[in-house]
Amino acid sequence: MRRCRKKRQHRTKNNPSDAMPKCGNTGDIVDQMSGNQPRVLVTGAAGYIGSHTCIELLGNGFEVIGVDNFDNSEPVVLDRIAELAGRAIDFVELDIRDTDKLRAVVAEYQPTAVIHFAGLKAVGESVEKPHRYWSVNVGGTLSLLDAIDGSAVERFIFSSSCTVYGDPANVPVTEETKVAPISPYGRTKLAAEQAIIDCLSTRDCGGLLLRYFNPVGAHPSGRIGEDPVGIPNNLMPFAMQVAVGRRAALSIFGNDYDTPDGTCIRDYIHVVDLALGHVAALSTATTAGECDVVNLGTGTGSSVLEVVQAAGDAVGTPIAFEIVDRRAGDAAVVYSDTSKAREVLGWTATRDIGDMCRDHWLWQSQNPDGYN
Ligand code: NAD
Ligand code: WQD
Fold it and tell me: For residue 2, is it within any domain?
């Protein structure tokens, strides 16, 4: 087990202000957790959403124990987290399917909450390598559930996805919308949700299954951001790689949808808002043995052409694009109903598409080749 214990500043137990949340909507985190020093095990801590969440957790007084196998991330992100947060996370390199190693981490650090980001997320790859997706996303989740059994963990937060809704019949998408995933990736996220619901039902642990819409953007410093391997599948990273000169032009997949400008509409959410949603989730009351599902989006849809325009505005030069055929499996319009997130978590996204493009561009322009 490679262990990286970064030097960290220790908070004093008699200075509770150190542990109070900064984002203003999270309540008294310390009192609602079982210990004085809230400790959170973050799987996939080095990834795109995990790294941004680590910064917000550290900034809100949490102790963070991160694990990751760097399958889709780089160790240098841990240094950048420390640089931005002013202190480091504890970190252990492991594959979440290695239950014994994971159990040893839980025994050593005694976390009271888990945020489970680790997983594979590429829809296309999941069609080509379905077993890999079931192994990591479902097998990895089962391994984690096994590793925390009998531990002090009383709150389990899971990274789910709007992909579980497939092509929803109506928008906005509520948590009651029928789930009907259309890819192996989507089915593994739904299966992982169901495994968590069943396994926690017999334990002193409550769950929050957070279904993210379309995370984009980066930390406003531009020091951390999304660094996709190979050709990006997603709109924003592709557009930004065009802007930085790594790709010639963006292919827009269809302009003949039944939408105002003919291109698909999605609910893009700034990754920092998303990270703050996890901070809020850590102080939301949960009931032992029960899980609740919450959508995390902005409730505002943007079309592909609107995003391309906003990205060009942020960059200062239009993004070159061409219209090509539709991509198989794309729904015309998907955006979230945000009322449950507001009611349950007391959380609302505050950053708009201009903020998302500005911060994503800052990251991409300062790191044209990502972390490499
Ligand atoms: P990411 O790939 O940047 O981060 C995932 C992290 O998990 C990576 O650092 C990777 O190295 C790690 N990992 C993968 N397999 C592992 C394993 N077997 N053991 C240990 N670590 C492992 O992805 P992300 O965008 O940060 O997504 C995080 C989570 O959020 C995923 O579960 C994903 O399904 C979910 N999600 C992402 C999006 C999105 O568009 N980014 C949307 C909805 C849900
Ligand atoms: C957005 C829009 C494309 C790329 C994906 C996953 C989903 C979830 C969120 C993890 C669509 C169009 C895209 C390009 C384009 N992730 N587009 N040219 O498909 O809404 O959702 O991320 O859970 O599971 O499927 O996001 O960014 O791929 O596409 O025109 O090169 O941009 O057709 O309309 P999507 P996306």
Answer: no
Instruction: Assign residue 93 the CATH number of its domain.
Output: 3.40.50.720
Alpha carbon distance 31, 279 (integer Å): 14
Separation between Cα atoms, residue 203 and residue 289, nearest integer Å: 5
State the Cα angle at 117 between 343 and 93, rounded to 5°: 150
* Burial (Cβ within 10 Å: 0-12, 13-18, ≥19) of residue 188: buried
Counting atoms of ligand 1 from 1, which one is nearest the CA of 160? 44
Question: Is residue 371 assigned to a domain?
Answer: no
Average confidence score pLDDT of the chain: 91
pLDDT at 372: 84
Quick check: is 248 in a domain? yes
Contact residues of ligand 1, CB 6 A cut-off: 44, 46-50, 68-73, 95-97, 117-121, 136, 140, 159, 161, 212, 215
Which H or E run includes 330? Answer: none
> Rounded to the nearest whole angstrom, what is the distance from the C-alpha of residue 119 to the centroid of ligand 1?
4
pTM recorded for the entire structure:
0.93
Cα(226)–Cα(365) distance, integer angstroms: 12
User: Considering 48, 133, 165, 185, which one is annotated as catalytic?
Assistant: 185
pLDDT band at 231 (very low <50, low <70, confident <90, very high): very high
Instruction: Tell me if 372 is assigned to some domain.
Output: no
Report which protein residue has its CA nearest ligand 1's atom 41.
Answer: 215
How much distance in Å is there from the Cα of 155 to the middle of ligand 1?
A: 20
185 is a catalytic site residue: yes
- Contact call for residues 26 and 345 (beta carbons, < 8 A): no
d(CA 207, CA 198): 11
Domain of 98 in residue numbering reads as 7-366
pLDDT above 50: residue 162: yes
Nearest ligand for residue 115 CA: 1
In this structure, which amino acid lies at residue 147?
A: A
CA of 233 from ligand 1 middle (Å) equals: 14
Give the CA-trace dihedral at 180, 253, 171, 297, to 10 degrees.
90
What's the number of domains the chain is made of? Answer: 1
Containing 92, the helix (H) or strand (E) segment is strand 90-93
Distance from the CA of 339 to the center of ligand 2, in angstroms?
A: 24
Locate the ligand 1 atom nearest the alpha carbon of residue 45 and give its number: 9
| Nearest listed ligand to the Cα of residue 92 | 1
Six-digit token string for 31: 């009192």
